[in-house]
Input
Amino acid sequence: MIDKICIIGVGLIGSSFALGLKKANKIKTIIGFDEQKSSLEKAKKLGVIDDFSLDISQALSGVQMVLIATPVNSFKPILELIKPHISAEIIITDVGSTKSSVVEIAEMVFGKMPANFVPAHPIAGKEKSGVEAADANLFKGKSVILTPQPATSKNAIGQVTQLWQGIGAKVDIMTAEKHDALLGMTSHLPHILAFALMDYLIHSNPDACDYAAGGFKDFSRIASSDAVMWRDICLNNSTQISKHITGYQRSLANLLELVEGKNSAALEELFASAKSARDGWLQD
Amino acid sequence: MIDKICIIGVGLIGSSFALGLKKANKIKTIIGFDEQKSSLEKAKKLGVIDDFSLDISQALSGVQMVLIATPVNSFKPILELIKPHISAEIIITDVGSTKSSVVEIAEMVFGKMPANFVPAHPIAGKEKSGVEAADANLFKGKSVILTPQPATSKNAIGQVTQLWQGIGAKVDIMTAEKHDALLGMTSHLPHILAFALMDYLIHSNPDACDYAAGGFKDFSRIASSDAVMWRDICLNNSTQISKHITGYQRSLANLLELVEGKNSAALEELFASAKSARDGWLQD
Output
């Protein structure tokens, strides 16, 4: 049984996980650890964590699990920081947006992937960041993808699964590679496209936004996501993201050709199948 | 005073305009005209219109205004159809998504732009279409752009302005060319990008959508818009849309280069300025 855990990084995801566990009464004690003392103080005040320490050995004292909830580029220094204080019994897990790179970093720091390290990624979020945006129901009904290695402990996988299910999430298991290809398409690509749209507007006609309707708002909302997190996602899943941008460029070039050629029938067909696919997949 | 109008096309926009007028008690009688008898019957049943006729001379009998609310490609046959039944006193207006092409079509059909024709475009909508989706508040607080010509009657502009303001919209006046450039960027481009994303997904990995999070839903929602309307927008604003797609392609190619080069600083800077521009412009 897990009754004490340490959450490293009390941003949106770490704090929402903590709040969810508290609401579901799944954990006795949640300890916070973060670079920003002010965030930890806020998290304690908001009831997201029970206590915090700026000293990692104190923060990890007596815990059965540590969850890393920071942008992926900070994983190497964080794993190096916790390594001396982690016994083989403590389960390590994370919520990093990319998974192959997390496995690589862990192998680099620990020599090989620890049997108790269960890489994980909840497919949920919002464009607000920070502990103030934390939401106990953020993961309710959402998927969490675990990407264990062949040698990962079944017990550790089970414990991590139980916590996520306990706060209402659905747990799926796949390889880190499959995760990165999938998310590269459904999450990283749309974010890149939205960031590129804002970049284009900024450099061509910023005043145009006075006339932006709902479509533009929907589209660009995700461009309000955290810049450091998205920088790290790009750095850590660059192969998959490049592949999907290149694939998308072909679709866009094809559409441009249809517009320039005023190809009425092909335009209508493309729009109708996009609409029917979208309507079929997603109901809201 | 306008006390009887005819609305040609009882889709989302025409029906929402009618409902808004009814709610605000601005018009005594609203007559519907549409290709689809079933839509007219539904509109009458839902209280969107007072009556309808499938005969255009009857539909226009005694009206002081006719509003055309159909996709832009149907404007030529519709203007030809109404021309014999329109006296110089009847105000013609529309809600077409492109404006230069509407002016061109009207000049073609009438020889020159009628002084009582006030081209208009409400910047509002949703991805649902049809009379069932009609909403009396759809235009509340939204902009409506009028693009009168130098010779357009001041009285006609005033009457059209009053109706839109009466249902809560803000009226702006600009040239048809400026409208098409502006909307090409803030509306047409994001829609094209969303359609291209769906097209890419359909052809590469349709199953991926099981793992699509909020960002993807926001982004692709606008790809559920009406295919015929968007076909017509592409055909009628192809120059501006091509220009904006080409500009966007440059922004995307630049971002791809940063991802492939793992240019950490430039990625973070681009994402941060996109986020700050987006946050500054739009609050939700």
Remarks:
- The mean pLDDT of chain B is 92.
- Chain B touches chain A through 90 residues (CB under 8 Å).
- The longest strand of chain B covers residues 4-8.
- The two ends of chain B are 38 Å apart (CA to CA).
